[in-house]
């Protein structure tokens, strides 16, 4: 796993990305030498590196770093974990909330690690469907469990500010494994989210 401090302070990488942003500004008809845009290529390069830091992180390692013995618990839910991502089709933001539930099998994970894992996959170029699946699959593999369920609801700027321009639309995706194949258990999860 790369050192995030090194990534954000890798001036050679920042300069390479900034060079391309400067060219893009010129191609759309802007003057990158005008006062308001002088530092924009560098700022945009740093923002891109921050928004894609998930490529340098390992979601499974984050979960495994905080697994604890626990004999009980029917279901554990962390709901409304906010996230920010960028769609891989238009490189525009999408954002929303993820709720993660699992049934422990003798082990539990530190709650903050679930939020950190969400950020690992959100901080990559993404589609919501894959984001939801990666969170579910990682927790299923990294933590002994009887089942995992992930619900994601997001607003996509590629649908709001371009294309069909539908301002009130949101997208909901769901992924589950193990015991959550049972519709009654899924319904219990949904009831607990209310």
SSE layout and pairings?
Layout (H helix, E strand, L loop, with lengths): L3 H5 L2 H17 L12 H12 L7 H6 L2 E3 L6 E12 L5 E12 L2 E3 L1 H12 L2 E2 L1 H15 L2 E12 H4 L10 E8 L4 H11 L1
Parallel strand pairs: 2-5
Antiparallel strand pairs: 1-4, 2-3, 3-6, 6-7
Overview of the structural elements:
The chain is α+β, with helices and mostly antiparallel strands and 194 residues long. The protein contains 8 helices and 7 strands. The chain has helices at 4-8, 11-27, 40-51, 59-64, 111-122, 128-142, 157-160, 183-193; strands spanning 67-69, 76-87, 93-104, 107-109, 125-126, 145-156, 171-178. The chain has a 5-stranded mixed sheet, with helices on both faces. A two-stranded antiparallel ribbon has the order 1-4. Strand 2 (76-87) and strand 3 form a beta hairpin. Helix 2 (11-27) crosses helix 3 (40-51) and helix 5 (111-122) packs across helix 6.
Helix share bin: 40-55%
- Biggest sheet layout: 5 strands, mixed
Average the pLDDT over all residues and give the rounded result. 94
Helix and strand element order: HHHHEEEEHEHEHEH
Uncertain segments:
none
The coarse silhouette is: elongated
Beta strands, count: 7
Structural class: alpha+beta
Spatial strand order of the main sheet: 5-2-3-6-7
Distance from first to last alpha carbon: 37 Å
Strand % is: 25-35%
Number of helices: 8
Rg (CA only): 20 Å
Key phrases:
5-stranded mixed sheet, 194 residues, 8 helices, two-stranded antiparallel sheet, 7 strands, alpha+beta
Task: Report a brief summary of the structure.
The chain is α+β, with helices and mostly antiparallel strands and 194 residues long. The protein is built from eight helices and seven strands. Helix content is 42%, strand content 27%.
